[in-house]
């Protein structure tokens, strides 16, 4: 295998780690915004911006995985289908939690309520990312998937 191909294949494992790190940072920025103690009316307006950015990025990441990455893994490694199913269930749960955060931000919820939503998202997201990395990084180092990382892993 030529060196260029090896580098391209290994990129998938590093790409997913980088995307997860950027999503963790986006969540941290959103949580900092809530913790800064703005009055609830100002917080609600700001959270619309932060929520839409963070929620869109995380949704985009999971959509890319579900539509492109996971089918490629399932085709190359059918034994991982139960793992991929578990990850898809996580995507659904995180989507539900994001919808709750969006609704809370849209109705101008208090910082305390927004923080509760963010706590649930943070815990579920972190658990999901760690499981995904443990289960898939070795596979991603050898996966032959000629696609744009921004399409496969989301725009972040």
The CATH class is Mainly Alpha
> What percentage of the residues does DSSP assign to strands (E)?
under 5%
Q: In total, how many beta strands?
A: 0
Quaternary form: single chain
- What fold name stands as the CATH topology? Four Helix Bundle (Hemerythrin (Met), subunit A)
Looking at the structure, what is the overall shape? elongated
Order of helices and strands: HHHHH
Summed up, the helix count is 5
Relative helix content:
over 70%
Distance between the termini: 30 Å
Overall mean pLDDT: 86
**Residue runs with pLDDT of under 50 for 5 or more positions:** 1-10
Structural class assignment = mainly alpha
Main sheet makeup: none
CATH architecture: Up-down Bundle
Q: If you compute it from the alpha carbons, what radius of gyration comes out, rounded to the nearest whole angstrom?
A: 17 Å
| Number of self-contained structural domains | 1
Please outline what is shown here.
The protein is mainly alpha-helical and 156 residues long.
Task: Give a verbal description of the structure.
Helix 1 packs antiparallel against helix 2 (40-76) and helix 1 (3-35) runs antiparallel to helix 4. The protein is elongated, with a radius of gyration of 17 Å. It has helices at 3-35, 40-76, 81-106, 111-142, 149-153. It is mainly alpha-helical and 156 residues long.
Detail the topology: elements first, then pairings.
Blueprint: H1 3-35, H2 40-76, H3 81-106, H4 111-142, H5 149-153
Helix pairs in contact: 1-2, 1-4, 2-3, 3-4
Short descriptors:
156 residues, disordered N terminus, mainly alpha
